[in-house]
Amino acid sequence: MLKAHSRLFEHLTLLGDLLLITGSWVLAYYLRFFLGPIPVYQGTPPLGPYLVLVVPIAVVWAVAFRAFGLYRPRRLKSRLAEWIDIAKASSLGCLVLVAVMEFFFRSFEFSRLVILYFWVLSVVSVSLSRAVFREALRFARRRGYNLRYALIVGSGELARTVVERLGQRPDVGLQVAGLVGDEKDATDSAVKRLGGYGDLRSVMERLTVDRVILALPHEDYARLPLILDEIGDDPVAIHFVPDFLRFASLRGGVEEFEGLPFIHLRESPLHGWNLVLKRGFDLTFGSLALLLAAPLMLLIALAIRFTSGAPVLYRQERMGLDGQRFWMLKFRTMQLDAEAETGPVWASPGDPRRTRLGTLLRSWSLDELPQLFNVLKGEMSLVGPRPERPVFVEQFRREIPGYMLRHKVKSGITGWAQVKGWRGDIPLSSALEWRIEYDLEYIERWSLLFDLNILWLTLWNGFRNRNAY
Q1: Buried b (16+ CB within 10 A) or exposed e, 109-129
Q2: CATH architecture group of domain 148-243
Q3: Residue pair 276/193 in contact by the 8 Å Cβ criterion
């Protein structure tokens, strides 16, 4: 019965999508030639040839939407993931549509703007319709309709986490019927324990469940073949939640490659399009910042030249992305050969090596402005963990677990740790650990909006740095 309902739902959803796609195509025609802001110079083409394409469009989009799994049950998937799949499917459909026009309709020239409008309208209309429909389903599920029942098989922290997360999302309509696992966890779970692993078969015969979620701790993986044998050929969906969270140190996740699941225990967020977006963000805002700061930088350079002589800039080796070394630029704030006798050391309060102007520049972080050139060269980013000198990096990586993970993204002029108050020279171990914690949190949470928020907080809090000596 459930399968029949699922088929009916799939057909109705497909029919609704194709109606929206067809309407988007016709609306794109009228938007270009009758309603749009761009004038028509060579006369309005007839609607007929555009209507002829409705049938191939419906076929292409139906195949594309199915290929991207848009009619599979999506109770456990995010809305954003569905929107991305819709955009991918529509993009593929538009490419095929252009090919169809080129090979089968050469005698008629279709408007490129119609195709562009159609692509935008198809993505927006289908995404909005899915969003409205999903919200209606969530509303119904919160009130006890359209529910499915799951049996959790597992124990320990992982099983408890699965139960908690499902409990936090009543809108997905997935209720936990019970848990099958070790007795030692009987009092730890928020749901009723129905028996041990050996009782799984009898439990499934007593209950009506739609899904079995395997949340086995890593040490129980040897039981997996026996558990699957116990489930047998029951027509239930089976989900496996891998117990890898204890091993994941940075942005862990799962990705499919040629049908194989790849589990990422450690990965940088900046790859693919994220890398392109981050670089474009740095170039755009870095160029703007450099343009606005240029007069001030010129005045600072002249002041340094007349008060303490050349050179005006100071180059210092730092460690950045993936442990690569680069020369970071700063305005010179100390006497020449300041570390000739001491070697590499942290600056200290009242440091006698500073120039009078240098004290002012460091306290207001104005000595960091030349790093905008490092940003434009691609050696740094506007936002990211502050780069450290290699000699200190070797020391800190021995003392602080996970220190090197901060090098999975480009170093920044400002960062999450800095706007949280951990700016400047903080040689204390506890302070460094707090800085590392915020740096890793930044990598975990990275997005362009997060970068904008950090830049805004940097400007809002001001450049005054109480830890800069």
Answers
A1: ebbeebbebbbebbbbbbbeb
A2: 3-Layer(aba) Sandwich (3.40)
A3: no
What distance in Å separates the CA atoms of residue 115 and residue 359, rounded to the nearest whole number?
A: 60
Share above pLDDT 90 across residues of the chain, in percent, rounded to a whole number: 24
Q: In whole angstroms, how far apart are CA 122 and each of 22, 26, 213, 397?
A: 9, 11, 36, 51
**Res 452: pLDDT:** 93
Query: What secondary structure does DSSP assign to 419-442, as a single string?
Result: HTT--S---SHHHHHHHHHHHHHH
Helices H, strands E: what count in the chain? Answer: 15, 11
pLDDT at 4: 47
Strands 253-257 and 412-414: unpaired
pLDDT averaged over the chain? 82
Rounded-to-integer distance, Cα 462 and Cα 179, Å: 53
Assess contact for 299 and 360: CB atoms under 8 A: no
Q: Which two tokens stand for residue 442?
A: 């930044």
CA–CA distance, 275 with 281 (Å, rounded to integer): 10
Q: Say how many CA atoms lie within 13 Å of 466 toward its Cβ.
A: 5
Report pLDDT for 1: 46
Phi, psi of 149 (to 5 degrees): -120, 135
What CA–CA distances, in Å, run from 334 to 200, 308, 345, 465?
72, 9, 13, 17
Which tokens is 345 given?
Answer: 């050391």
Please give the Cα distance from 313 to 310 (Å, whole number): 8
Kindly list the strands in the beta sheet with 148-154, ordered across the sheet, starting from the edge strand earlier in the chain. Answer: 193-195, 174-180, 148-154, 211-215, 237-240
Residue extents of the structural domains in the chain? 2-142, 148-243, 273-461
Task: Judge contact between 220 and 157, C-beta under 8 A.
Answer: no
| pLDDT interval class at 159 (50, 70, 90) | confident
CA-based radius of gyration for the chain: 30
Q: Give the SS3 label for residue 301.
A: helix
CA gap 307, 362 in Å, rounded:
16
Residues 443/251, Cβ–Cβ less than 8 Å = yes
If one counts every other C-beta atom within 10 angstroms of the C-beta of residue 93, the result is: 22
Residue type present at position 9? F
In which band, very low, low, confident or very high, does the pLDDT at 240 lie, cut at 50, 70 and 90?
A: confident
State CA 134 to chain mean position distance.
22
Positive/negative CA dihedral, 193, 195, 197, 200: negative
